[in-house]
Amino acid sequence: LNASYGRYNEGRKMIGGVNTTSRDLATNSLMWVSSEKERDRMLLLIKAYSVALTFYLNRKGNHNGMRCGPNFDEQVYAEYQAEMRDVFSNDYTNDDFVRVCIWFRNKDNVPLGIASLMRGIIARNDRQDALNRELEVQVQKLLACLAGAERI
Q1: I want to staple 127 with a disulfide (CB 3.0 to 4.6 A). Which of 51, 78, 100, 131 is the partner?
Q2: CB–CB of 88/94 below 8 Å?
Q3: By percentage, how much of the chain surpasses pLDDT 70?
């Protein structure tokens, strides 16, 4: 009983860390990412990260009513795609939307891929090194939460 409560409590802390870090990363991106297009892209990727993390850790996402059956993978993919459409405002042509859906279909580590896309935005940012380092630290915190949640 104590071990299961400990895992629950640790998982709760990880999810709280994702929420806090996402909020900090979004706030700092609004201030420090110089290109408006890249800033908007970063905000979408931050939202997509949480959805991708949920589905990565629990194949059904938050759709616990789904039951395994002959079309289970297709049902899960449809739910994942629907949630990502909400994130990307039904823009089916968005390169990032297409990319994260392909990654999910291929059973790749989507949160890790999204973090890599975020790092690309930071690398192209023409702000001061100290500001970019802080953005990078926040992406690292998201990845630390992913690693912690995988261990639970």
Answers
A1: 131
A2: yes
A3: 95
